[in-house]
Amino acid sequence: MARTVKDYGLIVLKGMGMGSADVVPGVSGGTIAFIVGIYEELVDSIKNINISSLKLLLSLRFRDFWKAINGNFLFMLILGIGLSVFSLARVITYLLETYPVLVWAFFFGLVLASTWVVIRDIKKWNWKVVLSFIVGGIAAYFITAATPAKTPDGYWFIFVCGAVSICAMILPGISGSFILVLLGKYFYVMDAVKSLKISVLAVFACGILIGITSFSRVLSFALHRFHDVTIAVLSGFMLGSLNKVWPWKEVLETYTDSNNKVQPLVEANVLPNEYLWEAVGLAIFGFAIVLFIEKLSSQKDAKK
């Protein structure tokens, strides 16, 4: 696919959008990839990192390897994700700790609008699609309602966290950051990012590489072979995940992490009790941003 410098600049920006979503527990970078129109290309590109392409690399056929994996696209996207994660990790964690209701309200509107955008990609509704949508919603609800665990800090477990969370990160509606919360390692990994703990980040990155190259094959097959059913499951995931991003919560139980910070362990959704109009405004703003981005992407696709 021939792309201009402007096209690659836009891919970097889309990557930054994915990265900013991925650092928030409850919001998926896969959701952003879907609404900006690069989701299937992303999954297919990752899938192409396989034995055949690695043989090209080991044979020093770098140009052929780069072309086989859609290297320009992946590099620019990863660049955007990296820029966003390393620049926003500190800001996002600060906002989540200081203004949680307002942050969650913004992302509630974003996820709600994203669900609508994803559903519209279903070409034909039937009982299988409807059932898949319901199953996806129920599954996401129970995942997001699960109690976060207190887990070990060993490198082997950090590797597992990377492999499992990246599978969620490329699924619209299932947040890799929230999976890290369930595994008890969200703030641990965020602290590693902020303080550049290379050993922790390297092990986590190895888990990510193994997890994403394996899972992308399954996801790519499902999207191409069972498109509508797969999209229905993904949109159900997104709708069910709204349980996690509901802005108003009551902390029922806390724990002290490895950095001696008190973190919420068990939370329950409650009726609005503060920042009502500010939260509604931010939710509407998040909703509008998604529709605006989707419209721009649609217009660009129509011109091709």
Notes on the protein architecture:
The structure is a single chain. The relative contact order is 0.16. A two-stranded antiparallel ribbon has the order 1-2. Helix 6 (71-98) runs antiparallel to helix 7 and helix 7 (100-119) runs parallel beside helix 15. The chain is globular. Strand 1 and strand 2 (262-269) form a beta hairpin. It starts with a helix and ends with a helix. It is built from 15 helices and two strands. The longest helix has 28 residues, at 71-98. The protein is mainly alpha-helical and 304 residues long.
Pairing-aware structural class of the strands and helices?
Answer: mainly alpha
Q: Ends: how far apart? A: 12 Å
Uncertain stretches of 5 or more adjacent residues: none
**What is the typical, i.e. mean, pLDDT?**
81
The Cα radius of gyration reads 19 Å
The largest pleated sheet is described as:
2 strands, antiparallel
Task: Give a quick summary of the entry.
By secondary structure, this protein is mainly alpha-helical.
Name the features.
two-stranded antiparallel ribbon
Secondary structure: elements and pairs:
Blueprint: H1 5-22, H2 29-35, H3 39-47, H4 51-58, H5 62-68, H6 71-98, H7 100-119, H8 127-144, H9 155-169, H10 176-182, H11 186-195, H12 198-225, H13 227-240, H14 242-245, E1 249-256, E2 262-269, H15 276-303
Antiparallel strand pairs: 1-2
